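pasting input
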Amino acid sequence: MTTTRFTQYNAYKLNERVYIQWLNERAILLSLSDDCQKELSKHQQNKFVQAYFDALMSAKPSWLIDLVPSYNTLLIEFDALEVDHYFVVDEVRHIDVNQADTHAHQVVHRIPVCFDLQHENYPNDLASVQQHLNITNARFKTTYLKSEYRVFTVGFMPNFAYLGHLPTKLNMPRLSTPRTNVPAGAVAIADDQTAIYPADSPGGWHILGYTPINLLTNQQYQFSMGQSVCFYEINAAEFMRLKALEEQEC
Amino acid sequence: MLNIERLGFFAHWVDGQRRLCQFRAYSGAGPLDYYSHSLANILVGNSLGSPSMECFGGDISIRFSKTCLIAITGNYSELYVDKQRVEHGHVFLLKEGQCLSLGVSNLYQPCYIAFGSEIDLPVRFNSVEQVMREQGHRYQKIGAGCSYNLGPIAQSLSSTQLADINNIVLPIDYAKLMSKVHKPTKRLKVALSYQAAQIDDVQKSRFLASVYRVTNAIDRMGVRLDEGAAIKCDKTLTSQGTALGAVQITGSGQPIVLRNERQTIGGYPIIGCVSQTSLNLLAYAKPGNEVFFELTTIEESRAHWLCQHRRLQTLSKQIRKVFNIKGEHK
């Protein structure tokens, strides 16, 4: 195994682009080298990680317990009674990322969003966001809705997809004081990302509107790394109609 | 049937078997003290991946409508069968109609009840485990009034066989673990990894020399510590996967040890991971306890953990001989 130990603890250079770090008895972290991160865009880095993720998910070796992909890292948890980290590193080294099939993930989810709900149960920051960005309502919606967003990773809570990237003119810093409760279905933005809250939770993102889709239960909308999401606008009446349908099907 | 009459503060089924769910942000779950959970299962002749009930705090009362072998490990105080106090042991044969009652003195310190019979439970991600924060209103809580179907008793035992099991000497390290459970100071072995190289040596030394205190913010997601050296790490991070036992450095500089129901990714720097054997001890931490970290290597952690597992396998062989079960299990 050609590996070079370098300045991270328990880390080994797998090749020019990737290094592996042994984290504990049964997990390793695959990361992109600093040079690779400088060379590739965020999208490209994420696609690179996705190639390893897809290869392992496709093979599902018996020693694989779980995978946690993130923006530019992949945590691999293995059965330490069956294999050790040397074995796993060797398996990963043999993955040919050029052969990886990412087509399976070219799913585009179309998510309806209502920007106009007027009720105290549906707090909304759209007006303050537009004011901060010095952008008209129409211009904001056009810009936001025309983009197709990549699912970089799913984290924080089940089916919470980190979507990116927002057009630069829509970038917003997070709320200085997070809300103690963001209602389920909130479509929100922070930094250069957008996301949908699948369940009620605290949150520091700016709420733009709401989707009637229940992301916890609706199996058609289960997000996974590499998929895409685009939004389309619906009015309040259509929101209520779709929400009632979702609740029936629950 | 297994009928729950009282179930203390909180209880749930654990089996440590969740697979391929973390990439969808479902936590890996599993028992806080993997060793006690495994031991309870071995004592009733189950495989290690069988469900056990992890219970926290209060009085537990379970009535059996059919004969069932049970084992109890972890932290519990008094034990009664049909209101008759029984000596502390680990394995008991409950007959049809009998009621098991036990007290768990502390709501932070778990006990494990394993049943020598198949239990009918729904399975998701290869596991019977549910995590409350993931399920919201769909979470099926275990509580008074719940009943579970028991399969035919897996092992029928005579009183001689039962005595044989209770007399088989438990692994020495289990006795050691239980003796440490009530000590107010816990030593946790930690192996440096993740962003440790970005934290300067002075801060690493202070981290290892500090005595931290367990705060009230302790649950199955993590154990938040304070009153020790605040650690600063200037590295900006994009979110990364969080391993079990990861010691995350929060914005205040105080560490939090991430446990079984941690979020799957996080953006705070991590200095290293607590070893699995130390996590079994940490399962019994409560607010006010002191914790200090001792440096180890991942190779050493792995060696200790494999030794512990080997001792469990040896015990399992002895017990399966009593049960007259052939074949190995993991």
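fyi The helical segments of chain B are 34-43, 132-135, 159-167, 172-181, 201-209, 276-282, 298-323.
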